[in-house]
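Components:
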Amino acid sequence: MTSEQGKRKAASRKEKEKIKKTVSKASQTSSVPDIELKKKPQTAGKTIFLDQSQTGASEASSPTSSGMIKKEGLSAQKSSVPQSASLENLAFSYNQTKLVLIVRDPVWAYSYWDFSGETWDQMMMLLRARPGVLRTVLRVYDITGIDWKGNNANHYYDFEILLDAKNWYLQLNHPDREWIADLGLIDPESNLYVIARSNRIHTPRDRPSTVIDESWMTDNYEEIYRLSGGYNRGESSLDVIRSKKLRSMWEQNISSPEFLKRTPKSPS
Amino acid sequence: MKGPMKKGYLLLLLHAHLPFVRHPEYQNFMEEDWLFEAITETYIPLIRMMERFEHDRLNYSLTMTISPPLAAMLVDPLLQERYIKRLNGLIELSGKEVVRTKGQPDFRALAEMYHESYKQSLNLYKNQYRCNLIQAFRKFQDQGRLDIITCGATHGFLPNMETVPASARAQIAIACDQYERLFGRPPSGIWLPECGFQPGIDRLLNENGIKYFFLDAHGILHGTPRPKYGVYAPVYCPSGVAAFGRDLDSSKQVWSAEEGYPGDYDYREFYRDVGFDLPLDIVKPYLHGEGIRANLGIKYYRITGKGDHKEIYAPKQAMTKAKNHAHHFVKYRERHAERLYDCLGGRVPVIVSPYDAELFGHWWYEGPKFLEYVIRTVAEESDVLQLTTAKEYLKAHRTNQLVTPSFSSWGYMGYSEVWLDGSNDWVYRHVHQASARMTELAERFSHASGMIDRILRQAARELLLAESSDWAFIMKMGTTVDYAKKRVIEHIQNFTRIYEGIQNNSLDLEWLLKIENKNNLFSDVDWRVYAEK
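Structure:
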């Protein structure tokens, strides 16, 4: 390990400790500076599914059960949403086991998850059976260009997460790649107990394509790219300026107090 | 295209959009002012501008989005009635101001200017267009000058709907449906909400008959294969829909903090408004409820300089500035076009300059005048540039490169982080759940009619309203956050209550009537579009 990597790893550890201390924060991030160290071929350990319906190769499962479960049923969990009175009026869980990935930009993805009561009980059983041993992870598979069968990823990264957070930001670091993730528990023998499998995503490209159409070739693409603003995209992003204007437009209009005093009631 | 060969096309595009803000449950509601201010300060001035063009028989081309929620508000009788009330209030207040400023000729001249302008606005709104501004815009479109394009049904940010494709599909289909009802023809173009695109969205556009849309520069520049002409020629997506790329310099020149025009010292100062400046007893009758200070629109000062000292506004001086700025803007676009023309090997570049419409007039008081000068200068004087619309351009240039554009938006940093960060990410699990449930209902009740049909229409409206990108944007910007949160929560709760009511076969019809009356856009919304099978 180079000293740079060592520093990064230490920073990462600190970051993780910090995250643990701020469990109630709105959302969690996993920035993984030592990502290359964790990159693994998909061979070590077994993959065991808690719920057989989760083995689907490309889609998150969506059980048909649709009722909400009561908060006391999942008292061990904390909501990841900001703790404001009104947000508590939304369902804490939809009683479905699922893991969803959303692309944020070329290097980051966002994930959120939810459990059915049944899945939760199974997880608790596992955790109680081997107390203090199992780690909760998001295993993110790079499946670029692959017909995904569930076990044939190019490689994967493990992001250690806090189950309670219910959502996590994943720094994938690689634009223009395809990904799928498992939420699971890992035992010391490297077996992964999969709780939920995500949808497939594609992180966007952050630079010009290397693919060139022969009938549409030009010898001065760089100049055209420059004239198109390709190099100063960030600084001239409309939104920075636009948001300032909108801010002034809207900050004048503080919400009607009558409306704010009213807190919507739960439908039940 | 008529006339001599020019070296570049200028495609000016105004994106007019406001979230659906309508609160019949209150006598007056502050957020409705977003609409009223935009009507007075932006939409009416733009209509007046096009009327002058019509009068002068000017040969111009302009593109404008009228987003579906904005269109729904513009044709809503309650909001129309409230707008007239608001405008009458301003006529009354400015009339009183004329009297109050008797001994101050400069102020009095301004008070008279506002008074006159409000009276003209009322005449245009009430008598000329019978309170329906959609008719005004439609007239200019039917004359072949204005190309009105649509937008997502409630301005939902489509890339975040990847796992709920029915929602993305519905955003497009319901928008097209509303457009056809209002404008008497299907839309040929669309402004994707926040320019948010990911490969595949073009297929949804194609399914709905859309021929072209617009992307931020990197959406085109990072497309595959490499686009030969950069952002200066449209590309065809695999679905056959054309994508035009945004010219970044055009926006920078107008809005940049350092080089932008609106900060000129001769322009009107936004922050000095009689709503804040005058004694409360004078303005109170025109403010909301308990007399909370707010902008009313009558402003007497110009920017003057960086400090607090402000000089009185001089309209003539400001208009001269707007004209100069317009000439400056056109000159730079001409230079850019000439450089591009050489660089592109003879292909005539198209420079796409899109702006939020509300920034012209509302924020930048002289903005509509600037725009008028730009359009007149290009249409009447320029030897280099020709105004165009996407429709006209594609008619003249049918051969374009086949490229799959890249995931992109026009938000900060160019992707999704404005609408997906710690301040607003909690929204998605609920909106996605509601979307999946809407699909479930649409499939289960595909043959429904009568009451179930009515209930499902409201369910779709609530889901659509929860999906507006505006709520996530406001949460991120930290402006009226409580309002934005409440809106998402309210619509998700309404949806959930309907969903559970259907499951339990019990729904409070009085309550349903109440929310139908409140969240009343898309009266004939086709919820079947949510079915996957």
